[in-house]
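RETRY 2/3 - previous attempt timed out on the joint model. Re-submitting the same 613-residue input unchanged.
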Amino acid sequence: MNGAYSAPPEIARWQQRALIVGAVFTLLFAVGAILDRRQFFHSYLVAYLFWTGIALGSLAILLLQHLTGGAWGLVIRRVLEAATRTIPLMALLFIPIIIGAYQIYPWTHHERITKTPALEEKARLYLNLRFFSGRAALYFALWILLAYLLSKWSLDQDNTADRRFAKNMRMVSAPGLLLFVLTVTFASVDWAMSLNPEWFSTIYGLLFVIAWALSALAFAIAVTSFLTNREPMSRIVRPNHFQDLGKLMLAFVMLWAYFAFSQFLIVWSGNLPEEIQWYLPRLRGGWGAIAVSVVFFHFAFPFLLLLSASLKRNARKLVMLAGLILVMRLIDLFWMIAPEFPPDRFHVSWMDVVAPIAVGGLWFAVFAWQLRKRPLIPINDPQYDSVLAEAQAPAHAEH
Amino acid sequence: MADERDKPESGENYGTDDTDVSASPGHPVSASPRPRVPVSPLYGVMAEFDNPNRLVAAARRTYEAGYRRINGYSPYPIEELWEAIGFHHTSLPVIVLIGGIIGALSGFFMQYYLAVFDYPLNVGGKPFNSWPSFIPITFEMTILCAAFAAVFGMLALNKLPQPYHPVFNAPNFKLASRDTFFLVIEANDPRYDHDEVVEFLKSLEPKEVTDVEV
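RETRY 2/3 succeeded.
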């Protein structure tokens, strides 16, 4: 039974190649650590948040999918589950951030926080390294627990066909999603917003929730599209599944734009010195050019293309758009984080390119290893029959 | 039961006397003596099914047989049906897109005109053309006009509201809003030949085959 949907042999090859690429670029990146320790950690933070975002976004979509159901979720579930099983790796890779906190976070500098009483109080109560690490441990414990439960029950469902597990997964998903949004809000404040400890934005956490979910969805679409070219997924996945995934990606792109623009509009209208200081450097020179490219290639261009139903049904075109969104996610993240680091003018280091490939290679190797472990379709899911029927219906029409 | 068995049989003389039939229009042709009236032009021939899967299967076979002016009627939307009857293209998305573009442009330029020409106000030293603050209303107008275009475009393309439609003449058609599924081959189909169509629809094993008068 299980053999029918086992992963194609290509995935083992992906795993090997990703591991080689990851190892080579990690070595290169390690050379960077010797040459410029500060830049190493700055580049590492962007790369780390990008790939952690795909793992955590997958968890968000998985929780959402268990609550809402639908065929689109069934065809990407195993990809999402494999991605959530990489969260322990990301917990491990958080250690360099604690090691490099002094290079990354200005609130670790005594002379900086004593300048303003408000910041001094903030650092005493909240932004100190001990509490920062403790909170990160708490977030990871919760995320790993959620990912573990959903993965375990999904496997139990495969083996026993017991309907109870589908219910378990649904029951844990509602509070899970709530806790997810709360923890990601805190994590994004800790890991990214605190780079500028005087600045605050209350929508910042939601911006990360949707950005991570969007990058995870784009990643899942890309992987599913590659799998669909081969047995066994070619028997199951149909254009209407890609259409549903494309619709969801359109909704996520719009929601991301909505949050990002809301933050901008409120800061722009208020025009307060302590708020606009975040935007001012980001809208000038090289950073400003990136901002404009984000508006066009992260929102306008994908938005207009995703309106087309025929594009969403075409896996090959959809995957190119998903690739563009992944690249733009990385660039947007870079735009949110890098301007906080010195020097004050626009700067891109070679390590900003090497770091995402190094972390990504290792991450993808673990992902592919996890993906191979299970059948690509949860065959004992209560919705399996309806998905299969749907997959077969259009095939008849073509005769 | 005996009655129902009668019907296919009685249907056999369907084609033969179609020149001078039929009993009350739209009724299954039956042997029952009824006053004969002059024949009137037919809208099409209707087959009746008791479940959606049979309707979809029948619609597929009808399409494969080369009939193009066909239509299905069901109490609720059946997703496969539109593919089965070969309904591939609708211009509604284009109408909605045009509605959205009109909404976006009118929303933005209404505010632009008001804030820059009609009643310029200095708000916090910001420029008159403060485009970021125009975006929310531009967005709302886009959605509003796209939604209007969707609703009214859908009504127009479906030629609704339509108080009269020939299929209402079929005696059982009121069941189309309850539990019965209908397939009609319209008389303006290029391959339409009344006898053949009746024979063909009967071969799909429907509950009943009836003429539909205009």
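The mean pLDDT of chain B is 83. Closing ticket.
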